[in-house]
Amino acid sequence: MATPLSADRLLAALRAEGVTVVEHPGWRTHDRNRAGAWGPVAGVMIHHTVSTGTASSVALCSDGYAGLPGPLCHGVIAKDGTVHLVSAGRANHAGGGDPSVLRAVVTEAYGDRPPVPREHQGSSGAVDGNSRFYGFECVNLGNGTDPWPAAQLDAIERVSAALCRAHGWGAKSVIGHLEWSDWKSDPKGFGMPGMRDRVQKRLGAAPAPKPTAPAPAAPRHQPFPGAAFFRSNPSSPVVTAMGRRLMAEGCGRYQVGPGPRWSEADRRSYEAWQRKLGFRGSDADGWPGAASWNALKVPYTK
Ligand SMILES: [Zn+2]
């Protein structure tokens, strides 16, 4: 479960998912928080309004009615796919429901459908859904024949995905009211398992192109190759680069210029470098160590 999104973050999450949002006047502070808890939240619940017309449905969902004060959801999803935000807090949409369903949503451990609900508002084992779920009311008569336009279904998918993405949930955190309460039939006219498939597919897709990270820059200096490297009689451009740096430091003890094959001349040159740094005794035996190597700043060669 998670801390509910602030109004600003809710709005930003929806817009980032490509939702066309309309902010109903006063929505940011319109809630039922004085009547009970809001959060921690576990998921998203989808409903139908049993009404027609966007404006009147939004007004109803914001105001509520005698016996059920508004807000009745967080957002109203119109038939044209616009989403009208009416609350950012506790809303009267879910009512009491089944604790086993809540558990299934929290763990997202179920197959196509959560367990069949056996509780409802007012029943003895019911738990408060209004504190646990974001709610979205979709404008539809709920008679099974009122059409669900593609734009509206697309908005349901995007709204659900936006909240899942914001909270790190999978699509199984999205349920219909009928999956929460054995008294309810909404949403009617499309299946929640299919909608969850759509949401999960959207979540699986890249959310937004991320800025390309710059390729890590090559180090400016050759990292210390390790003491064993020099004892292995190496032939390497690293040895040549080292010799050139020793020459530049006035420590070259070469008869001919430095080459790739580690030699006694390299050892004697390196010993001069160690002495120049102040090392003495076995610390100035000509065999490179990390401290003197890093001080030499051999240019990166590979
Ligand atoms: Zn409902």
UniProtKB/TrEMBL annotation:
Record's signal peptide: none
Gene3D superfamilies listed in its UniProt record: Peptidoglycan recognition protein-like (3.40.80.10)
SMART domains registered for this protein in UniProt: Ami_2 (SM00644)
InterPro entries registered for this protein in UniProt: Amidase/PGRP_sf, Amidase_domain, PG_bind_dom_phiBT1-type
Domain N-acetylmuramoyl-L-alanine amidase: 27-188
NCBIfam families linked: PG_bind_siph
Entry protein name: N-acetylmuramoyl-L-alanine amidase domain-containing protein
Protein source organism: Streptomyces hydrogenans
Lineage: Bacteria, Bacillati, Actinomycetota, Actinomycetes, Kitasatosporales
